[in-house]
Amino acid sequence: MPPQTHPDPHAPAVPLAWRAAFSSPEGRWLALGAALAALAFVGLGAASHWWPEQALTLAAMSGLNLIIGRAAGMAYGYANGLDHLPVIACNVLVESVQVLVIYPLFVLSCRQWLLPPWLAVALARLRTSAESSHAAVRRFGMAGLFVFVFMPFWMTGPVVGSIMGYLLGLRNRTTLVVVLAGTYLAIGVYALFLDEVDAWASAYGQYAAFLALVVLAALAMLVQRWRAPARLPVDKTRR
C-alpha cells in the first residue's frame, strides 16, 4: 500500500470556495461577465490591426464610460465620427459587463465570500450609494428601479441600480432584467440626444459637447462627495 499522506488542511479551502461560488447562480453570472470582458479585449486587439483609429476610439470611449459615465463616453465617440451602431454596441457591452461582474461579486460578498480588501472597500462604497436612494425607490418596486436606472442623473447607473435591486429583495434574474432593460433603453435615448447635441456643438469645436459633459460630470462628483454621509463597512451578516 502507498504511504498515507496528510495534506495541508488549509490547501483545499480556496479551491473549494471558488468552486462553490462559481456553482451558484451568482457565480455563473460572474463567469458570463468575465467571458464577455475577455471577448471584448480580444476583439478590440484584433480590430486594432485593421482599424487602429476606430479601435483606439472604442477603447477610449469604454474607459470614459467606466471612469466618468456613459454620457462622456458616448459624446467622445460621436465627436470622433463614430456612427450610432458602434457607439451603442460598445456602451451596451461595457455596461452589461459592469453589471454582470460587479453585481454577482456584491451578492457573494454579502454571503461572506472572501474578497480582496480593495474590492470589498469599493463594494462598500457602492452599497452606500445605493442605500442613499433606497427609500425613494422602494415604494415603487421594480418600476422605481427601472426609472432609477433610466434617468440620466449622477449615481443612477446600472451598477448602483443592481445593488439597489438586491437591497429591495428582488430575485437575481428579476434585478438583472430590470436593470439591463433600463440601461439599454437609456443608451438608445442618450444616442439620439447626444448625436443631436454633438452636431449642434460642433460649431464651437470637435470636442465641445464632450468637454461640456466632462465638466458637468466633475461638478456632479464634487457635489456627491460633499453631500456623501460617512461610509460604513459592509454588513456581511445579511443573508
Outline:
The protein has 239 residues and is an all-alpha fold. The chain has one domain.
Shape estimate: globular
The biggest beta sheet reads: none
Which class do the helix and strand fractions yield?
Answer: mainly alpha
The portion of residues assigned to helices is over 70%
Radius of gyration: 20 Å
Overview of this structure, please?
The protein has helices spanning 13-22, 25-50, 52-67, 70-79, 84-110, 117-132, 134-138, 141-150, 158-167, 172-201, 208-227. The chain is mainly alpha-helical and 239 residues long. It has one domain (21-227). Helix 3 packs across helix 5 (84-110), helix 5 runs antiparallel to helix 10 (172-201) and helix 8 (141-150) packs antiparallel against helix 9 (158-167). It is globular and about 50 Å long.
Topology at a glance:
Blueprint: H1 13-22, H2 25-50, H3 52-67, H4 70-79, H5 84-110, H6 117-132, H7 134-138, H8 141-150, H9 158-167, H10 172-201, H11 208-227
Helix pairs in contact: 2-3, 2-5, 3-4, 3-5, 4-5, 4-10, 4-11, 5-9, 5-10, 6-9, 8-9, 8-10, 9-10
